[in-house]
Amino acid sequence: MSSTYGENLKLSIFGQSHGPAIGMTLDGIPAGLPVDLDQLQEFLNRRAPGQNDWSTPRKEEDRPEFLAGILDGYTCGAPIAAVIHNKNTRSGDYNSLKDVPRPGHADYTAEVKYGGFQDAAGGGHFSGRLTAPLCIAGGLCKQWLEEMGIRIGAHIVQIGSMDGEYFSLTNPELDKIGMFFPTLTAEAAETMQHTIAQAKEQLESVGGIIECAVTGLPAGLGEPMFGGVESRIAQIVYGIPAVKALEFGQGKSFAASCGSMANDPFIVENGEIRTETNNCGGILGGITNGMPVVFSVTVKPTPSIAKPQRSVNLKTMEEVTLEIKGRHDPCIVPRAVPVVEAAAAIAIFDLILGNSQTNRRK
Amino acid sequence: MSSTYGENLKLSIFGQSHGPAIGMTLDGIPAGLPVDLDQLQEFLNRRAPGQNDWSTPRKEEDRPEFLAGILDGYTCGAPIAAVIHNKNTRSGDYNSLKDVPRPGHADYTAEVKYGGFQDAAGGGHFSGRLTAPLCIAGGLCKQWLEEMGIRIGAHIVQIGSMDGEYFSLTNPELDKIGMFFPTLTAEAAETMQHTIAQAKEQLESVGGIIECAVTGLPAGLGEPMFGGVESRIAQIVYGIPAVKALEFGQGKSFAASCGSMANDPFIVENGEIRTETNNCGGILGGITNGMPVVFSVTVKPTPSIAKPQRSVNLKTMEEVTLEIKGRHDPCIVPRAVPVVEAAAAIAIFDLILGNSQTNRRK
Amino acid sequence: MSSTYGENLKLSIFGQSHGPAIGMTLDGIPAGLPVDLDQLQEFLNRRAPGQNDWSTPRKEEDRPEFLAGILDGYTCGAPIAAVIHNKNTRSGDYNSLKDVPRPGHADYTAEVKYGGFQDAAGGGHFSGRLTAPLCIAGGLCKQWLEEMGIRIGAHIVQIGSMDGEYFSLTNPELDKIGMFFPTLTAEAAETMQHTIAQAKEQLESVGGIIECAVTGLPAGLGEPMFGGVESRIAQIVYGIPAVKALEFGQGKSFAASCGSMANDPFIVENGEIRTETNNCGGILGGITNGMPVVFSVTVKPTPSIAKPQRSVNLKTMEEVTLEIKGRHDPCIVPRAVPVVEAAAAIAIFDLILGNSQTNRRK
Amino acid sequence: MSSTYGENLKLSIFGQSHGPAIGMTLDGIPAGLPVDLDQLQEFLNRRAPGQNDWSTPRKEEDRPEFLAGILDGYTCGAPIAAVIHNKNTRSGDYNSLKDVPRPGHADYTAEVKYGGFQDAAGGGHFSGRLTAPLCIAGGLCKQWLEEMGIRIGAHIVQIGSMDGEYFSLTNPELDKIGMFFPTLTAEAAETMQHTIAQAKEQLESVGGIIECAVTGLPAGLGEPMFGGVESRIAQIVYGIPAVKALEFGQGKSFAASCGSMANDPFIVENGEIRTETNNCGGILGGITNGMPVVFSVTVKPTPSIAKPQRSVNLKTMEEVTLEIKGRHDPCIVPRAVPVVEAAAAIAIFDLILGNSQTNRRK
User: Fewer beta carbons under 10 A from the terminal one: N or C of chain C?
Assistant: First the structure.
């Protein structure tokens, strides 16, 4: 099994970069949930390329066609299916990717795994393009969560060596995220864009860190052990190409902390239980405690760079120098921001669907 | 669903800290795999408490009784079941944990989730004690992987602010891991133990970072997207209590890197494809590339500390000061090392069981 | 995967006939459900052997020990685990079953599947004894369903060529089922017992048909296609050894019917929608319609008979005559009645746990 | 969850009768399997309506468009996705089906389950039309099985009260199945077609029984208990609309049999183990024994009939007389024959994918 996610919903993603279409099916969604297709399109546009200086100019519209599961603006209980038809389908010769795998891409591992039968064009099923159907599913889940008062927002906290401001863990201000370039401050946006532009000039690429917060969650969400909120978010987030690290709350800083600093004291605020700090990122024992869930994700630099790289011709077993033609994003991080939101939305909505089971008697 | 893991095997973990027994069932294991119970016991002893200065003196033997699935030293194809009977069962009054939740523990989230019906004694099903059955399953998988030439080793790279040496990503030397205290150098072991002893004196606890490497893996293991090696490892590793960050290869350092530094060039070595560096931690597109899989895990400081802490009495909704009685590990990291190995072993063995499907024609 | 069932709960059954213990884990059960262990024991006793003339005199007590998941008479949200320790463990030489497989049993298929590593004693994991843990899980689910007003009752409608009365499909009278021998009339009980006694005298065995009804179900339970009530019941019922046919409602008689006779007209009764007949057995499109769910199950004759039978010595590949020693049930049908109820209870409770998702807006 | 099937492959079916498209995704299929689209189309045509007197004249072409997973005539390892665009999309007013549910259809249960949000047109997601994507997946699996020497054939053994010949259980002659009307003898075909024509004249419909055989299977396929071949086939077969009974081997006749007649003696034939009879339908303990797997399926009469029927107006709660307009198959059984083959093919191929795990050491 592979491109399928979910315990209570079942998300199935299909398609190859240059195949006829990419798409998704989403099963297990209750009937009667409203769907706002315009709002979904706006969300998808945040991921789309070709909108600015630092992303690839290939103009995909990423306009999903819904084939099933939605009727008159509401989910109808049947599985939801949507496709995005590819316009730039197979034209050139992509067999070279089979022969000379690009460093940092899945060309080589796909070749080994599928024995030469894989669709190598543009990375095939491993292409970042497959995050578009993920965003269809995630954009829908995000709408349904918002209806329940649950909001999700992600922003960039680091590009290359340039840091931006992090959320307050106890009170992440989602509304402060910039519209055009998603950071908490205009300054950070500027320096980060500059870093990206520089990388482009140098025929290079840069990585970064995205922070995501979920507010308005009820306490008690998640299951023990492998069904915990961290496990569920981790499984889907690591399904996003180029993600190589994931931290919850204080994350890696916990290592150098001590118990009295790390623990979040319980307090009463307006008659409700809260914690004074939120180092744990809203999750204790895998279960939400009612505080914001906050996590951050490290994205590696785009593997496609214009600089010559060393690789091997798999047919001749000779070491060769590879030059990747075409234009590529010098930094994938800005476009990954809505993808991280989508992943979080799917994971959280899946947990909410399952949550009804846990406590019947309360 | 909750305490169940696996796509091709099914691991189910049960038990509460002070219940009659904890245990696991492991279904989907092929018949005819040898089982060395002495070697398993040695592995379990690495996790057991009470063996040194810095861990809790509660003496549990953690000796599993196998109820099913093993016959005459081999798996017999039927589900494997094993239990560890608890000796320290419910004695004192644990209802106070329901009333006044310990900061950093799952007491409060369990109370909300299970509406007061949870087994609160010693953390119940959320107790670190549940990692013992995880180690039974993982210890078995580790043996079977070793038979195939796949080795797994973890060690401590940070305790509090004290750093130790990291593995070479291209050539992790598992044999250099210390037996008594698992670090790569004796110096690191000493300073880390000192840090733990200090924390104990100060009625505090410390966190740390564990690095784990898997060597001898074939290329081509893993599935695309949510079935990738990172996703599968992440799901189980985040099921270990107190884990709050997970990084693969260069991990978080990727953010400040650039494409030409981050990508691992393909080379030919002894007629085989390898990569010159291994920044990606042996995984491209979720699939192994034949290089060592290396990841690191951040463990937060033990939440149970002797220092007084602030909490709330859930019945009266008054803020109170909580003092946790009894002895507790000032640092859980050393005992978590075999648990991380166990989790990795289960994830990898599960992937190997599924791998036979991917490429029939090659 | 194998001995695992459920979409919303996860039932895992383990054990071999003559191993140290058999048992089950049941994960995904809400906290706070009451558990009546005496009532459970009564239910298990209905399956236990040695209680009368026609069943094997091996006296097993089948008294489950609960290791986890239940606290002070209520489920606590953690996975439930229970074991039954075997008293008659491995004594004789069972290797002969590997060499000369018994016709009608799984000895041969297990040998092929597990390559000689299987536990052959008493049928190992394929033994009918494994229905005891199924009855633990099912007995619990039955209690929880009864709390919701959902009742399940099964009885025997045929033994050999002797027919008994069937339920009224619209109004199955569960209270009319005989306590000692589960039929609707005393006459049927008598003739069926006579048939069993006769089979025993003739060193033979007989099969039969069990009918099961579930009353008090809400309409709207089940999922479309492969998640329908029939599919879910079928998967678990065919997991009971010796079941070879399964029919819903009119079942096989539908073949010779016509549309106007087969369809169940909708009517209004006491202001509620009902159907006048219930040929469909309470299920339309896989979803309950609020009428009783009624199905029947054909059980083949016990394969173990005292008469000599023809088999093959797998080592020498010679055809041989096999005589099965020991006492065996001449008819397994009466003891299978509670097992069918258990299977139905588990399937229905699983569907109810999932049902909360389907319609949020109504 | 609902319209998803499979343990080792994941089949997901989507679409509503009158929606824009119906389709399926099929994940977990190895790379490098050949795909013959012409042969697939021939298979699909067997299910298509409008080809003869007794089926509905609505002309659908049921020509699948493959969006993903197939490249240059071979599977490429990525999930397979295919759609069939609907030509007869929503035109008339189907709200009447919500108000006055058709007896025998899922109109009422869908209304209750989805609270009025369901797509009622033509039965929506519950329509028999959804068996077309099932046949896409099944047609592919059938091809791949044939490559391994595993053949699947189904035929009609009963229409109304007219019986045809059954397969020999030990040697089902798949090649004797009629091309035009799938029975073993031309006589049976004639009388059955006559029965269907009669039903049509009388504004009625008839049911029937389909028998299906799988030959060339290896012994050792299937998993114990709920993963047995019977359970796996049952789950998918009961996902076909109108199936109400399922029998394996002798099926229901086992009830009146006795042990010595029911058991299949093992014999040696050409140096191989076989059974002399095949009453068990090739399955012992849920595992194949190398003999043909044979099962039969009862299909209820088409619920849509021209005769007036009684129903209830759900809005007014008045009992009304319903007349179903349009043309409908007086007998769905002939068109269900390839659907049963498809279901069997999917179940068997899924089991084969998982089978590699069971015995590594043999």
Answer: C
For residue B127, is pLDDT > 90?
Answer: yes
Q: Mean pLDDT across chain B, nearest whole number?
A: 92
Structural contact between residues A206 and B261, judged by C-beta atoms closer than 8 angstroms: no
Q: Is the confidence at residue B156, as pLDDT, over 50? A: yes
C239 touches chain D (CB under 8 A): yes
Nearest CA in chain C to A34: C361
> Which of B28, B31, B362 is the closest to D359 by Cβ?
B31
Global pTM?
0.96
Angle at A295 between CA A294 and CA A298, to 5 degrees: 155
- Shortest CA gap A291–chain C (Å): 22
Question: Is this complex scored with an ipTM above 0.90?
Answer: yes
Q: What amino acid is encoded at B279 in this protein?
A: N
Residues 186-215 of D with CB under 8 A from C: 199, 202, 204-209
Contacting residues for C152 by C-beta, under 8 A, at least 6 apart: C142, C145, C174, C212, C213, C214, C215, C341, C344, C345, C348
Q: Which long-range contacts (C-beta less than 8 Å, at least 24 apart) are formed by B45-54?
A: B46/B335, B46/B337, B46/B338, B47/B131, B47/B132, B47/B135, B47/B335, B47/B338, B47/B339, B48/B335, B49/B329, B49/B335, B53/B193, B53/B197, B53/B200, B54/B193, B54/B196, B54/B197, B54/B200, B54/B329, B54/B330, B54/B331, B54/B334
- The pLDDT of residue D255: 97
CB–CB of C209/C182 below 8 Å? no
Q: Chain B contact for C79, CB < 8 A? A: yes
Asked if C25 contacts C32 with a C-beta cutoff of 8 angstroms, the reply is no
Q: Which residues pair with A21 in a beta bridge?
A: A85
- What is the arithmetic mean of pLDDT over C80-87? 94
How far is the alpha carbon of D99 from chain A, nearest alpha carbon, in Å? 16
Q: Is D20 on the interface with A (CB under 8 A)?
A: yes
Residues B301-336: pLDDT tens digits? 999 999 999 999 999 999 999 998 877 889 999 999
Please state the length of chain C.
362
Q: In 3-state terms, what secondary structure has residue B133?
A: helix
Query: Which residue of A199, A206, A309 is in closest CB contact with B265?
Result: A309
Tens digits of residue pLDDT in B215-247 = 999 999 999 999 999 999 999 999 999 999 999
- The shares of helix, strand and coil residues in chain C, as percent rounded to the nearest 5, are 30, 25, 45
Preferred mutation among D10, D26, D119, D125 to probe A, highest tally of A CBs within 10 A: D119
How far apart CA A112 and CA B199 sit, in angstroms, is: 49
Model confidence at A359, pLDDT cuts 50, 70, 90, reads very low
Closest residue in chain A to residue D33, using alpha carbons only: A117
Alpha carbons D362 and D360: distance in angstroms, whole number: 6
Whether B315 has its CB under 8 Å from any CB of chain D: the answer is no
Nearest CA in chain C to A32: C361
Rounded to 10 deg, the angle between the C229-237 and D229-237 helix axes is 170
Would the CB atoms of A1 and B13 count as touching at under 8 Å? no
Cβ <8 Å between D114 and C244? no
| CB-count exposure of residue A349 (10 Å: 0-12, 13-18, 19+) | buried
Q: Tell me whether A19 touches chain B (CB under 8 Å).
A: no
Tens digits of residue pLDDT in A307-346 = 999 999 999 999 999 998 877 889 999 999 999 999 999 9
Residue B153 has pLDDT above 70, yes or no: yes
Subunit contact D227:C2, Cβ cutoff 8 A? yes
Sequence-separated (6 or more) residues with CB below 8 Å from residue D310: C265, C266, C267, C276, D103, D319, D320, D321, D322
Q: Do C312 and D281 touch (CB under 8 A)?
A: no
Whether residue A132 contacts residue A44, with contact meaning beta carbons closer than 8 Å, is answered with yes
